[in-house]
Write a structure and sequence with these properties.
The chain has about 150 residues and is α/β, with parallel strands linked by helices. It is built from five helices and six strands. Strands 5-2-1-6 form a four-stranded parallel β-sheet, with helices on one face. The longest helix is centred in the N-terminal third of the chain and has 13 residues. The chain starts with 20 loop residues before the first strand and ends with a strand.
């Protein structure tokens, strides 16, 4: 400790290797709780050298996204909206229909909603891979399985 200036703050830099890869099995997990846990892993809040604005978190692979659970009656009440870009092009789909067509998109949108709404959040969103089934084809990254 410097007697003239007190304690010094150290700023960490992003790791050169890009962080390790982790696998999370989404089978029978609650969607919101899983999404918040994944967002904290992506942000790097699980690491002791966490700094806001620094991409220092791990990369995440989520398998069995089609088997994720929700609480309450969200399956029938929650709506997903998007726009085609044309006049009158607002499209709406319930969570039940969305689960039938693209179940991995539901978890993607939940994670996206829990990350910062800026360039940092968009950069972090590229570090997550979501797969509907058990096969992920990313064995070359040597991911390790973690329990959530």
């Amino acid at each position: 400790m410097d007697p003239l200036y007190g304690q010094r703050t150290t700023h960490t830099k992003a790791p050169q290797d890009g962080g390790k890869w982790v696998i999370i099995d989404a089978t029978d997990k609650i969607m919101g709780r899983l999404a918040s846990r994944v967002a904290s892993i992506l942000l790097g809040k699980t690491k002791p050298q966490f700094m806001p604005g620094v991409v220092a978190g791990d990369r995440v692979i989520i398998i069995n996204a089609a088997n994720v659970k929700t609480t309450g009656d969200k399956v029938n009440q929650k709506l997903y909206h998007w726009h085609s870009g044309y006049f009158g092009g607002l499209k709406t789909r319930t969570m039940k229909k969305q689960m039938e067509k693209v179940p991995d998109k539901i978890l993607y949108e939940a994670i996206k909603g829990m990350l910062p709404k800026n360039t940092h959040g968009r950069k972090l969103l590229t570090r997550v891979r979501i797969f509907q089934g058990n096969a992920h084809g990313m064995d070359a990254q040597k991911p390790e399985m973690i329990q959530v």
